Amino acid sequence: MNVQDKPASGNRAASPGGTYSGDHALQHEEPLIFERGRTDVSGVDIPDVEIGPRHLAGLERVGEIGIPGLSEPEAIRHYVRLSQLNAAIDTGFYPLGSCTMKHNPRLGEKVARFAGFADVHPLQPQRTVQGALALIAELARWLKELTGMPAVAMTPRAGAHGELCGIIAIRAALENRGDKRPIILVPESAHGTNPATAALCGFSVKSIKATGEGRVDLASLTQALSSQVAALMLTNPNTSGLFERDMIAIADALHAAGAYFYCDGANFNAIMGRVKPGDLGVDAMHINLHKTFSTPHGGGGPGAGPVVFSERLAPFAPLPLLVEDDRGFRLIEDSREAQPASPFGRMAAFHGQMGMFVRALAYMMSHGRDGLRQASGDAVLSANYILASLKDVISAPYDGSCMHEALFDDTFLKGTSITTLDVAKRLIDEGFHPMTVYFPLTVHGAMLVEPTESESKRTLDRFIAVMRGLAAEAISGDPAGFKQAPVFAPRRRLDETAAARNPVLRWKP
Ligand SMILES: *Cc1c(COP(=O)(O)O)cnc(C)c1O
């Protein structure tokens, strides 16, 4: 990492605000494990082994292997201290727009640790894991019910992986009817993974304009349609936090032109229990279990991005297919066995992220049908509460209410020399994870705030009070407090561009 300010060093003299140790009460300065450990010691006793040069054909290593040796307590402190330097949903408000950082209920954590789920192996005979397969089937049923779609592929490992799955299925369906279509349409406000997925699958990407109110421009879309267009990838609610109202007209236009409708369902949190994408004419949509259904993500766990399919695309869904017959649950892993369907292949070696499936189903079943509907309503209410409480002091680019996230821009900072980035850095000092900044690209200096349904009104009020304070300070004309921020974090302002362009990925002694 490139840091502008040097980390506190252990042997500097105590100064106001400084310490001899370099630590600050419970906030410890923690070096890399290679700097903390010593290569000539080991924290464990390893017995001498009776393997001589004879066994290794003269290839045995004679030098140090360079692995740092630490005692057990040193190793534990190292990792616990690192974990304390992390912003986490379990320590504070994390309004990172488009990421849905909601609380991960402990019920989900508890059931995911049941041995029958946590300790199964994907190569175990299927008759010994009937319960785990039943759980996958039940989760699939809930996903199909919630989306109004007839089929679901459970294996994709993340949202972007789900997009890949959906677009490969669309490509397979086109190939199947002998139709080569080279273009995928993507609205301006799309998540970066959408055009990336289309390009990865060999399509060229054509951008579709947004209207002045932040939604897809239906006229531009219909104009762009032709026999060359394979699909549209549209996010709904979109990344400006707005519901795309023209869904049915869009679906009809696409289908009339022989194209498919891919919906990025990462924002399903705002509509679950209220709208079924199947009713809107969607052909494929990924669902981020790690967003909508509360499974830990970011640094906290792997994602899971199941993809639901319409009748049109279902035959091309990837293996494995999970079926139930009179002998119980069974995975079809061979495409010959899948006939008359023609799966395009497979997305992953095994059957999906089991731990995430358990947590997601626990979330669904503990909420129930009415609870899921309330969760999406509360998520939208929280975002609108923030929007309504701030828009007199912080500029919002679009009129009216929002869905699950509130979008602001930097118009209110005009003439102050303070930027969106400075505001985000000040939030770190205030103990909040910053909102998403500079995304979507369609508004200048975007700040995208997604509070989720799991925050209390008290937390939202604190955030609103902080944001109002920051806005007043910013327009009062004194940028000093912003340009220095963060001052209370373990690291000061990083040179993020240099870190991204020249990442230092290897530690050298
Ligand atoms: C999060 C997100 C994605 C990507 O999901 P990952 O699980 O991070 O791959 C795609 N589209 C939108 C709109 C998202 O918010």
The CATH architecture term of the largest domain is 3-Layer(aba) Sandwich
Percent helix = 25-40%
What proportion of the residues form beta strands (DSSP E)? 5-15%
Side by side, the strands of the main sheet go 1-7-6-5-4-2-3
Bound molecules: pyridoxal-5'-phosphate
**Number of contiguous helices:** 15
* Unreliable stretches covering 5 or more consecutive residues: 1-13
Q: Within the CATH hierarchy, at the fold level, what is the topology of the largest domain?
A: Aspartate Aminotransferase, domain 2
Q: Structural class per helix/strand content?
A: alpha/beta
* Mean pLDDT metric: 93
How does the overall form come out from the CA principal axes? globular
CATH homologous superfamily annotation of the largest domain: Type I PLP-dependent aspartate aminotransferase-like (Major domain)
Series of secondary-structure elements, N-terminal to C-terminal? HHHHHEHEHEHEHEEHEEEHEHEEHHH
The number of distinct β-strands equals 12
- Determine the N-to-C terminus distance: 16 Å
Radius of gyration: 26 Å
CATH class term of the largest domain: Alpha Beta
- Main sheet overview: 7 strands, mixed
Total separate domains:
3
